[in-house]
Amino acid sequence: MTTVNRRGLARRAVPAISILLLGTMVAACDRSSGSSAANPTQNASATDVALTVTSNAISGGKNAAEADWYANYVIPKFTEAQKAKGVNVTLKFQPSGVDDEQYKAKMALDLKSKSGADVIALDGIWVGEFADAGYIKPLADVVGPNVTSWDGWAQIPKAVQANASYNDKVYGVPGGTDGRVLYYNKKLFQQAGLPADWKPASWQEILDAGAKLKAVSGVIPIQINAGTAMGEATTMQGALDLLVGTGAEIYQDGKWQGNTQNTRDVLGFYKQLLDQGLMDKNIQQAAKGRDESFAAFAANKIGILLEGDYFWRSVINPDKGSAPMATRDADVGYAEIPAKAKGAGVSGQDLVSMSGGGGTFLNPNTKFPQQAWELIQFIYSPDAIKAALAGSARITARQDVNKEVLSKDPLLSLISEKVLPITRYRPGLAVYPQVSQALQQATADIVSGKSVDEAAATYQGAVEKVAGGADKVQKS
Amino acid sequence: MTPAAVVRRILFYGLITLLSLFFALPLLWLVLAPFDKTPTLTVKIPDFTLDNFAELGKNPYALSSLKNSILISGGAMLLVTGLSALAAYALSRVRVPGRDLILYALLLLSSIVTGTAAMVPIFLLMFQLGLIDDRSGVSLVLTGGLLPAAIFILKDFMDATPKSYEESARVFGASPLQVLRHVVLPIARPGLATIAVWALVNAWGDFLTAYILLRDPEKTPAGVLMYTFYTEGGQANLPLISTFSLVYAIPVVALYLFVNRRYGFRFHGGIKS
Amino acid sequence: MTANAGASDAAGLGRARAVAFVTPAFLLIAAFLVFPAVWTIWLGMTDFRLTGAQAADPQFVGLDNYRAALTDPAFHNSLWLTIVFVFGSAIVGQSVLGFLIAWTMRSVPKTVKAIVETLVLMAWILPSSIVAFLWVAFLNNNGGTLGTILNSPDTAWLLEYPMASIIIYNTWRGTAFSMLLFSAALGAVPPSQLETARLSGASTLQQFRDVVFPHIRGHILTNTLLISLWTFNDFVPYLLTAGGPDHATETLPVFIYLRALYGGELGYGSAISFIMLLINLVIALFYIRLLRERRTANRSGDADADDAKADADEVLTAAEARNVGQ
After folding, report:
1. A399 and A308 co-located in one domain
2. How is domain C74-308 classified at the CATH fold level?
3. B246 to chain C nearest CA, in Å?
4. Contact between chains at C158 and A287 (C-beta distance less than 8 A)
């Protein structure tokens, strides 16, 4: 055994390793914050182009139809079209197919490291935070002023374009959108003595219908999402639809909706649902509560359900829905969501709704901005959109396509023609998800028995914390 | 046997039955749901069908994901077992200053790295190393997280293994490497096999690391693919999920049974002479 | 006084080879564990978010995140729930059940042993995503297995008894490790000592206390330390209850997941991760102290005692050397 001091070795090694680590860390930070302004005209006349497009879809899994459409239509047809111009394009689709939040994290990481696909699908509601982080840039900056010459813009309503914009700048092309309505079970309505063509004009009429449904045994009268377990589904198919019915949006005039009369009205309505025994508490609190509510509606156990057209198309659809109802077309009715009372809704509307949707955006670090823009234009051409629909009816971004494909589906026609003009979108600001969480928590408080004032006060505190100050929150 | 002894025996076996049921019952869903035409989130007599497996077979990524899982988890398993065996042996037999403290510190740090908060540092680190979209990158990250516990457990294992055999071998003139290969490894095999299975099982179930580091769908492991069997609104595709779960579980179960039969499955051992 | 390293270096590895053996593992650990972990700790002192303005330009906020966490009632709630979770499912649940199974398996036929051990191990090796589905099906309030057996099929176990549900779930999940540990430890108890005790009239309990326990004390502590740490950091309850109902099962890993991934507050999430590490450190120190006491008190001539003494010597001399300014 040598007599060299072993402790000395460790003592010398430790500082050496620390310096190495520190150095690498500094170097790493440096490289990842380098800037590289994308030049719109770079590689504009390249004849060998490699493009990648990504979306939260995967063949055989989530949004499989979209993934298959990319593989079977977009890639071959786009490659063909480019070849006809003498350009060799290698187009790849990068699937994902996971929970939206995880997909969002992955996109953020890619864009943060200035890598990732050239064309990226994002939810409209992420636009603001991604823009603030510098992950995406306005289309005009990435592609150049020629971006406005696309004829598709004329077909996309300004309200829908807002879904892919931030601070009045357009960052991408909005994809399809949707709308929310009140679904009701006509069979149960008949048993409860309610009309088959129900058109509620106020919240009270909803409560009255619920009271009659309560008399039918084994039925949950009303399901309007509440609680935190369903996440954004509570906000979008619940709280916000009620809020716009009281005349306020969650973010207006530069302020977030705090403990206002509007908010208290919304919470008060939930309280009435709870107190009058019109809602099932358990569904709001279970981890898979939303799935349960769908299964229950399909089994004729829920009278009234507030949901988006997704419910009609993909859940209770007799042909491949996840909770199919064979008699959907005959037994399920739908009505537009009323404001609290006539004229009490936003902009003085009698009827209200909320919409969402995603869009396609350009990676500001793409090496082929012009070609990537051509790809986007291709993806949003009428033929491509119709190919994506593959005969099914969905509300697309373009009005010309909508007129064609929705004529056979009454619900979607209704939404496209009547609901979209009066709908509202969520603000794409970075802290919106946390405000949404605070709102969900407020509804959860009501469901667990707290009073409206208590829940509203807690909500106010939470929003102030998130928004960064009481001056950014509206109170009344 | 006295009546008291009979009663004791009955109670004894009653206890064992209860314990067995406790562990077996939740497993029922896994063996019943895949064979059900319309599985739900309950355990029921299946409306028997093998269609779900056919449906799974049609999925373009199902088979390749299992291959990727084997590659990634196998890689992590080999790295963890090999490196921890060497390190644990050295730390067990040779006085290295502060070894216990370092081990505990590493054990604690490993909890940060396997959590959500480290996802950005890990991603950026791998990006700098050019290991994004590389399965070996995933293996390396998983290995890093598993090594401290593996060394900790194996060192304990080796500490309990008597040194008399090694000392005798040395007396007979064996070199340290010969001692390692011919004396230590055979004795430590059960412990090594156990750590190998433990590492594989942990890597097999990983989602977040593989998801944020990989891009090419052909490289996606089964742990990530599991999460894609949902509809656009977030509802579970139960026929696919239950079937895939069964298929996904079989390799690890098979490996465990194999190791258990061959070496016995033990985290702590050593022979008391 | 330098400890004589040759005493336990049975294979004659020597310092150089020992370092060589340890280096590959430590290099990997340094790169893929220490580095990201330290970086995460650094993030905990910023207001870094994954998106939004704070993604592009994170500000150093020092200890603000920590202050916010320590005054956040949601954090206190999470901390308390985590402690209950660890105590209930790991320290009590898994250890006791693991020991019970190991003890009873000593006196059953080999086939019974094989079946029981395999069942217990299945629970442990199945991936978390699968296990979550198994338990949601088991505890379902609409025909779930447990409800059917106990004849209360409508009880929403996960909603009415959330903590109990996840504690029982985690006991089921992790007992295997304790079982294996105790099985090996019990197997290592010299049968001669047990025989002597039995012959001199000791009851089963006395046999356990006086013969078995002293041999396995060290192992119990190591085992409990590991499973405590693992349970403390276990994220799987999220898959069962999503932290609910109403934050009733929002343990720290779930809390971090919801804040860091869903809320995007990575700076805050990182700070909480570091606080968790500190808590784990306290737990570990507690166990180490217990272990040291046990080891130095153990005079049975066990090889471990020699190691412990040498360890203690080493630490003392290192301290001496530092004081002397070497």
Report:
1. no
2. MetI-like fold (1.10.3720)
3. 9
4. yes
